Amino acid sequence: MTDRPPSLKLVPEQTDDTVDADLREQVAWAGRILAMGGHGDYTLGHVSARSSAGQHVLMKPNGLGLEEVAPGDVLAIDMDGSRLSGSGPVHLEYVLHTEIYKARPDVGAVVHTHPPYATAFGATDAKFELLNHDAVLFRDGLATFDDTAELIVRPEQGAAVAQALGNHRALVMRGHGVIVTGTSVPWATYAALTLERVLRIQSIARSFGDLRPMTAEMADRVYPDKYRDDHVANYWAYLIRQVRRAGLAAGMPDTGDGRA
Question: Could you tell me the strand order of the sheet in which 109-113 lies?
Answer without folding.
Answer: 83-85, 75-77, 57-59, 46-50, 109-113, 178-182, 170-173, 143-145
